[in-house]
Design goal:
By secondary structure, the protein is an alpha/beta fold. The chain has six helices and eleven strands. The protein has helices spanning 8-17, 76-86, 106-127, 141-145, 185-193, 208-222; strands spanning 4-5, 25-28, 35-43, 46-55, 64-70, 91-96, 134-135, 139-140, 152-162, 172-177, 197-200. The strands form two sheets. Strands 5, 6, 7, 8, 9, 10 and 11 form a seven-stranded parallel sheet that branches. The chain has a four-stranded antiparallel sheet with strand order 1-4-3-2, covered by helices on one side. The mean pLDDT is 91.
């Protein structure tokens, strides 16, 4: 395979963050699966992958899990998205909930979306995934629920059916996680009308940035990933 010049961002990461030099091994991926094992050749500020060998490797879970996360304040969304990628989510859908502290519309929402997609790329680089999870545009819960899907929808609420008791575990699941103040009664009613199953995460109330990740980890353990 011929030479591949690394993008400026990838070159900076390789040379300045990882401190790689000419002759060091590198692994490249394009986000669609598989990866290129190559050798780095540094030419001034240019970093080039040479002598590449393509390998069809997959590190994906047998479960297709999408995290439908109500917008959370501060840096919590970055944290949730990063860890959801590490835990095998195939996608993240940010939703504007009634009690979300963070409000995103217009250009601000677009800027955040681009930032979150970069968070996904960095998380894949860190954890070794070679297939990029998607991040959907910010949308209302109603807009999300109006979309047809064959995936099971689980809305997480205190006192819901224990996740450990849910049988069987479907191969495709959407996990609906509420904001800091929880889902409103109207939102829960909308979820119920959309055939969402009410699921709980034990006797303790988890924070919004914890709940989805705990559910993801529990599901991956049940799927034999841990």
């Amino acid at each position: 395979m011929g030479e591949i010049a690394l993008s400026p961002a990838a070159a900076h990461h390789a040379l300045k963050v990882l401190r790689l030099g000419s002759g060091d091994a590198v692994v490249l991926f394009d986000g669609s699966g598989g990866e290129l094992h190559a050798r780095l050749d540094v030419r001034g500020r240019l970093a080039v992958a040479v002598d590449g060998q393509w390998q069809e490797l997959s590190r994906e879970s047998p479960l297709d899990v999408v995290l439908v996360q109500a917008l959370a304040s501060g840096d919590k969304m970055d944290w949730v998205i990063q860890k959801a990628v590490e835990l095998g989510a195939i996608g993240i859908v940010p939703v504007q909930a009634a009690r979300s502290v963070l409000r995103l519309i217009g250009a601000r929402a677009d800027k955040k979306l681009e930032h979150w997609r970069q968070v996904v790329i960095a998380a894949c680089e860190q954890c070794g995934r070679n297939r990029l999870p998607f991040v959907a545009p910010v949308q209302s819960l109603a807009a999300y629920l109006a979309q047809a899907t064959e995936a099971a929808r689980w809305v997480f609420v205190p006192g819901g059916e224990p996740l450990s008791a849910v049988q069987p575990v479907p191969s495709s699941i959407h996990l609906l996680i509420g904001p800091e103040g929880g889902w409103s009664d109207e939102e829960l009613a909308s979820c119920s009308r959309a055939s969402s199953r009410s699921v709980g995460l034990g006797p303790r109330v988890l924070r919004t940035e914890t709940a989805g990740l705990a559910a993801l980890a529990a599901l991956q353990a049940r799927a034999g990933q841990f």
